[in-house]
Every structure is written in C-alpha cells, then in structure tokens.
Amino acid sequence: MGPRVLRRKLLELSTRSRVFMFGNHKGGVGKTTVVLQLAAALARMGFRILVIDMDPQANLTRRMGLEYDENDPFSTVSEAVKENREGVGAGVVLGVNWNDERTGQPTSEAELIDIIPARFDLINREQEAGAVGAVRRLKKALAGWTSHYDFILIDTRPDLGHLVQLAMAAADEVVLVFEPDYDTVAGAIRMQEFVEEHGEDLGNPELRVGMAFVNRYDRSSEQDYQLAGLPESLKSKLVELDAGGAVVGLGDGGEDYRIPKYIPRIARIKEADGAGVSVSEYRNRKGRETTAIFDRLAEKFVERVIREADAA
Ligand SMILES: Nc1ncnc2c1ncn2[C@@H]1O[C@H](COP(=O)(O)OP(=O)(O)OP(=O)(O)O)[C@@H](O)[C@H]1O
Ligand SMILES: [Mg+2]
C-alpha cells in the first residue's frame, strides 16, 4: 500500500491513542536514531508526530535541533513529570528546530513534528520513584491534549529503571530496537519479559511488545545465526522492510535501489545523527537510498498498526 492509502486507512480507524515506546535494556543499539528517522519518515507521509525524550542524555533533543542553553532555557519533560498534574505536558511542547538551509524556514518534516525535550536533570525524577503513583506521572502529563497527533514516539534510556517505567506506563505498545548480536538480543528479550511480567504493576496491563526493528544489519553469518535463534515470541514481532528484495526508483534516472531486509549499517545514518538532521537532508544518491529505507520502515510500521487495529 502506498503512503496515501495508508494514511487514509489510518485516519478511518477509530483508535486515536497510539503511543509507542522504543526500548532495549542495552545501550547504543539505535533507539534514538530509529525514533528520529521514523518520525521524519512518518512526517513525509503527512502524519503529525509528537516525540518525547525520556533519556537524560537528551540525544534526541539535541538531534532535533534543541541544544539546552542556560541563557535561553526551555522547560522539559523533567518539569512536566515533577509537576504531577493532568495535561501539564502541553506546556513543555516545542517545535523541532530543523530549518531549510536556503530559506531558513522550518523543513516540511519539522512542521509536522513536535517534541517534548529532555535535559540531563531528568535523572532527578528517579528519586521520586518511591512516591505513590509516581510511575503514572508521564501518562498524566499527556492526558487530554494529544489526540491531534497521529503517533507519539517515546525514546528511552537503556535500562529498566523508573524513567523507562514512566514511558511504559504511558505507552500503548513497546517497540524493541536491536542489533543481531548476542548481548543486544539478550537486552531485547529482557525488556520483553519485563513488559510481560510488569504491565499490571505499572497500571498498564494491556501493554505489550508489538514490534521489533533490526538495526545495523550487515548480512553476516553471525547476525543471521542470531536472528535464526530468536525466541518465537520475539521473532513474530520482527518488522521486515523487505523479504523479497523489492526494488524502488529513487527518481534520479539512475539505477533502482534494492531495499534491504532490515535497517543496514550505513555511514549516512551516523552522519545525520552527528549533524542533527533527517537523512532526507542528503540529496545525493546514498542519501536518497537511506531515505528510502526509512520511508519503507514507516510504511511497514503504519501497516502493522492498521493490521492490529483491524484485528482488535
Ligand atoms: N544503522 C546505523 N548505521 C550506522 N550508524 C548507526 C546506525 N544506527 C545507529 N547508528 C549510530 O550508532 C550510535 C548509537 O545510536 P543511538 O544513539 O541511536 O543508540 P541508542 O540506542 O539510542 O543509544 P543509548 O542507549 O545511549 O540511548 C550513533 O552514533 C548512531 O548514529
Ligand atoms: Mg538513545
């Protein structure tokens, strides 16, 4: 299905709350990368996105163009969670600061993406973990004002502590991001088990892992071995970009591009993260290939959401 059809189908569905938490118990696997580039790709499809940075490292915030400056401070998710009041998150939403080099105006992607940013002091919220109901404070902050977003994507830190639990309590679904190596797979499985065991304790008994994205795929035999050995419960959640090696045109009159099965390791992705931009900013051949990968990821993501909503 093309982006337009997907968009129409999604808008016809009645459920409006689609909050996705991206996680892995292990660090550095590409959670933030996937949240950012998926948000950009969904915006290219015309969806309205809210991203939430729940990591005190604030990588997502920086990559979306918001560098915290003491002289020009902005409020963050930390203040919203601390305040512990229904709907308070609305007061800390900012626009994504991606501008078109030529015009200085926000890019078309930026116009459709809002962010609740973070900064390092988010770590202080951990001290409140023991307070009654503290785990529901992010959910409370999001209550009553987010329905105009098609998707809310929450980036998390690599552990299973209070900040991740705040995100779990607020989410409809967990998306695991992992690289097919032993420790990263173990981190994904650990998170899946945690979700299955503790949804109820987090006041979110319906919470489940709905999808798993493979990142930095290099088609090595070790990676294929790890993928083949995944437990069935995780294997069934894998989102394949393309099983059959579909070919897409890149609109440059040159050769077509064969979409890989999973998100590959590509230097452009690292560069985009360093520069704090969407991969679509790179307009050469490699940039367009990388953009096509995330366009496909976004399509597959929306297809899954539609399929599950239809089944429900
Ligand atoms: N597919 C990829 N190809 C090349 N580099 C990648 C890819 N995915 C992620 N990276 C790079 O790997 C590094 C770690 O990625 P990222 O920060 O997204 O991981 P993370 O899981 O969010 O880390 P943390 O656990 O610290 O939050 C970054 O420099 C990022 O640009
Ligand atoms: Mg991160």
Q: Mind summarizing the main beta sheet?
A: 7 strands, mixed
Order of helices and strands: HEHEHHEEHEHEHEHHEEHH
Number of helical elements: 11
Query: Could you tell me the mean pLDDT?
Result: 93
Q: What class, by secondary structure content?
A: alpha/beta
Small ligands present: adenosine-5'-triphosphate, magnesium ion
Q: Give the helix level as a range of percent.
A: 25-40%
Distance between the termini: 20 Å
Strand percentage lies at 5-15%
The CATH architecture assignment turns out to be 3-Layer(aba) Sandwich
Global shape? globular
Number of domains: 1
Oligomeric state of this protein:
single chain
Low-confidence stretches: none
The CATH homologous superfamily is called P-loop containing nucleotide triphosphate hydrolases
Rg from Cα:
19 Å
User: Can you list the strand order of the major beta sheet?
Assistant: 3-4-2-5-1-6-7
Quick tags:
312 residues; alpha/beta; Rossmann fold; 7-stranded mixed β-sheet; two-stranded antiparallel sheet; 11 helices; 12% strand; globular; binds adenosine-5'-triphosphate; binds magnesium ion
Question: How would you describe this protein?
Answer:
With 312 residues, the chain is of the alpha/beta class. The protein has one domain: P-loop containing nucleotide triphosphate hydrolases (Rossmann fold), CATH 3.40.50.300. 37% of the residues lie in helices and 12% in strands. It has 11 helices and 9 strands. It has helices at 3-12, 31-44, 59-63, 77-83, 137-141, 162-170, 182-198, 221-228, 232-235, 267-275, 285-311; strands spanning 19-23, 49-54, 94-95, 113-116, 151-156, 173-178, 209-214, 247-248, 257-258. A hairpin with an 8-residue loop joins β8 (247-248) and β9 (257-258). α1 (3-12) runs parallel beside α11 and α2 (31-44) crosses α11. The two termini are 20 Å apart. The protein binds adenosine-5'-triphosphate (ATP) and magnesium ion (MG). Magnesium ion is lined by residues 31-32, 55, 59, 155. Residues 27-33, 55, 57, 59, 157-158, 215-216, 263, 265-266, 269-270, 273 line the site of adenosine-5'-triphosphate (ATP).
